[in-house]
Amino acid sequence: MPEPDYTESNRAAWNQAAPYHARQQLDHLLALFSQPGASTLDATLTALLRDRVGLEGKTAAQLSCNNGRETLSLRNLGAARCVGFDISDEFIAQARLLNQTAGLDVEFVRTDLYAIPAAYDRSFDLLLITIGTLGWLPDLPGAFQVMARLLRPGGKVVFYEMHPILDMFDQDDTLTETPAPRHSYFKTEPFADQEGLDYYGNEQYQGPTSYWFHHRLADVINELLRQGFLLEWFEEYGHDLTNEFASFERCAALLPLSYSLIARLPE
Ligand SMILES: C[S@@+](CC[C@H](N)C(=O)[O-])C[C@H]1O[C@@H](n2cnc3c(N)ncnc32)[C@H](O)[C@@H]1O
Fold it and tell me: What pTM was computed for the model?
C-alpha cells in the first residue's frame, strides 16, 4: 500500500475545522485585537520571551500559526517584523482578517512548513512553535532542517508545546480521576483519526483522515542537537495547553502536561 499523503490530508482536515473554530473564537479575537497591544500569550510564554529571548526589534516567525493570534501577539509585544506560516487556507484567511482588524503589518503565508520558500532563509531572530505543532509533522529532522535554514546565525527557536506523554491517553481518559495510559510512549505508527478537529466547541463531525505523529521528547532534543542547535533552556509544567486534557491538572499524581524549550544556532 502506498503511504497516504499525510500533509495534504491534514490540510483538508484543518480547512474543514476552520469554520467550527471561528464560531467559538473569531468574534472574541476580533474584539481583542481591535485593542492596541493585545496578546493571547499566557504568563509563562510571555515571561520566557521577555527574559530569555527579548522581542524588541527582533524579526520573528511562527510555524503552524493557525489563526495568527500568537503571531499578532508577538508583534504587539515588541517584535519588529513578524511572519506566520500555516498550511490551512482557511486559517490563513482568518489570520489576515485579524491582522487587518488589529491594524498590524504581520505577513501570513499559506504554505506547507516543509515548503517554506527559500526567500525566507536566514531571515529570523526567533521562531515560535506552540501547542500542537510538532504532532502534525511526519518528519521531525526535516522540520528542524527548515528551522535551521530560516534562522539567522545565533537565532533561537522557542517551543511551548504539549507534553508528548499526553499521546499515551485518549480524550475519554479525561473523564476519569485516575487515567491509565493506553498507547506506548514508544509508538512509531501515526494516529489516524476521522473525527473532526473541533477541540474548542467539541462539535462532532466526520472529516478527512487526520494524522498525528508521536515524537518522544528524546527525539525532539536529539534531532535538534543533530541539526546543530545548542540547547539553552528546558522546563516541564503541570499545566495543560491543549484545552483537551485540562482535567489532568486535577489528578492527584500530576503528569507533565506541557514543556518549554529554547534552542539556539551558533553565531
Ligand atoms: C493545533 S494548531 C496550532 C495552534 C496554535 N499553536 C495556536 O494555539 O493558535 C496546528 C496548526 O498546524 C497547521 N499545520 C499542520 N500541518 C502543517 C504543515 N505541514 N505545515 C504548516 N502548517 C501545518 C494546521 O493547519 C494548524 O493550523
Answer: 0.95
User: What's the pLDDT tens digit per position in 61-79?
Assistant: 999 999 999 999 999 999 9
Q: Does ligand 1 have an atom closer than 6 angstroms to the CB of 91?
A: yes
Residue 63 belongs to some domain of the structure? yes
Is 1 domain-assigned? no
Between the CA of residue 207 and those of 86, 144, 161, 169, 262, what are the distances in Å?
19, 29, 25, 21, 35
**Which ranges of the chain have pLDDT less than 50?**
none
End-to-end alpha-carbon separation of the chain, Å?
45
231 CA → ligand 1 middle, Å: 24
Is 219 inside a domain boundary?
yes
133 alpha carbon to ligand 1 midpoint, in Å? 5
Give the residue numbers spanning the domain of 85: 6-264
Atom of ligand 1 nearest to the CA of 197: 1
- Residue 123 phi/psi, 5-degree rounding, is -100, -20
Nearest to 32 by CA among 106, 105, 98: 98
CATH value at residue 196: 3.40.50.150
Most ligand 1 atoms within 8 A of CB, residue of 14, 20, 64 to mutate: 64
Q: What is the mean pLDDT of the chain?
A: 94
pLDDT tens per residue across span 90-138: 999 999 999 999 999 999 999 999 999 999 999 999 999 999 999 999 9
Atom of ligand 1 nearest to the CA of 7: 19
Count of structural domains within the chain: 1
Residue 129 lies in a domain: yes
